[in-house]
Amino acid sequence: MEERPYRSASGAPIALRHRQHSASCRELAVRCPRLQLRSLSAVTSAVWLAAYGLFVLSENSMVLSAAIFITLIGLIIYLHFVKIDQESLLVIGSLGIQVTSSYASGKESTTFIEMGQVKDVVINEAIHMQKVIYYLCILLQDPGDPQGVSEVVPLFQSSKPRLDCLIEVYKSCQEILEQRKTAPQSS
Question: What's this model's pTM, rounded to 2 decimal places?
């Protein structure tokens, strides 16, 4: 297992963990930085100070209770539905591609794509806020048209790795896809 540091499109530090289980099975995981206690404390303090200011002006204790309740509910929602700690890609040449997102609360979201549906894995580019950003995506084959693409599935949407990290993941995926393409010809 090899882990290398990279940066996201926004400049935040991320890490790419590369694990090769066999010649046709690789796992690539991008880890995002964990939630910082300092930033969590700053947001909580700001909300509670604003609530205390409103309490002083209105002399209504419900303002403080509402601020505490809203902060706790907001934190739970953020940890369970928004903050992703790790995104992984498990590529098995004979079976398919499994995409997993692990949230800060421990919840995991997994999607599996059969290898017969995969047309290719590509690096695409997009223009966002006067910047060109790159992202990795899976092209799904159109069942009605073997040359067409029915859907584009973007990968690593939360971590948004920079191009150098995406190239490493792309090369690893392409090696397995090439093995799959050459295997029927050699047998």
Answer: 0.82
Q: Are 16 and 6 in contact (CB under 8 A)?
A: yes
Buried b (16+ CB within 10 A) or exposed e, 61-79: eebeeebeeebeeeeeebb
pLDDT of 185 strictly over 80: no
User: What 3-state DSSP class applies to 94?
Assistant: coil
- Show the domain range for 69: 37-81
Between CA 138 and CA 103 the distance in angstroms is: 22
Closest CA to 87 of 35, 28, 138, 140: 28
Same domain assignment for residues 76 and 120: no
Q: Which residues have CB under 8 Å from 114's CB, separation 6+?
A: 95, 96
Query: Is the domain of 122 the same as that of 161?
Result: yes
